[in-house]
Amino acid sequence: MELELYQVDAFAEGVFSGNPAAVMPLYEWLSDELMQRIAMENNLSETAFFVRKGEYFELRWFTPELEIDLCGHATLASAHVLYEYLDYTDPVVVFETRSGRLFVDREGDLYSMDFPAWPCSGIQVTERVAKALGARPAELYMGSRDMMAVFESEDQIRALAPDFRLVAQLDGMCLICTAPGLDHDFVSRVFVPEVNIPEDPVTGSAHCTLVPYWAKRLGKSKLLSYQASARGGLLQCEDLGDRVKIAGKAVTYMKGTVIL
């Protein structure tokens, strides 16, 4: 069996930046075990698989260890593959996922994703969090999936050197760290050692939590975000109430054939 495979840098201005995702278009679903083994072999934070079902596409995401409920950069990468390589011409891609229907449209070289908003509630800043991050955040929040630590400056975010063993013991899948930006509305870094991703380069799904928080705090609906990982990534965001728009560019790094 031979299957097409694409590797795409999402939220990237060029190769070697943004967040790399593998994308595998399928005519029919493989077994869960085989998809998990392919994701493990790819050894990227996410591998996306999709199958066309009439006017929409079923989309699933796998880390090297497990299937997850929502992934932004691999969704953007999947839309990029459809438009660039699979002759998709409709104005919007509709993905059916474990997080409901997600929508992606393209304007020029910018892909815009329509995702659910995930509000969060303030909780007490604990010693466990401060020790795990090696720094004490000014505020701490818990959302439906992730924990979010808010700092006072971009310099603090860039200087973080977490103890990933301790971060993995905290509540939530992702630990999002964020602060006001110097050249952007806000900056962030995202740590996910629970699923063996010490630091995710650019995390679209984290902005389901980040965008509602910063829109309310800054009193504006349109926001420019930068994820300050080593690779870095720029995201154009908009708060829509119960939904958020998350937009960025994508660049193909590699395409090839998997032989099984």
Automatic annotation (TrEMBL):
InterPro entries reported for this sequence: Phenazine_PhzF-like
Domain of life: Bacteria
Keywords recorded for this protein, A-Z: Isomerase
An annotated Gene Ontology molecular function: isomerase activity
Active-site residues from the entry: E46
Stored PANTHER family: PHENAZINE BIOSYNTHESIS PROTEIN, PHENAZINE BIOSYNTHESIS-LIKE DOMAIN-CONTAINING PROTEIN
UniProt-recorded name of the protein: Isomerase
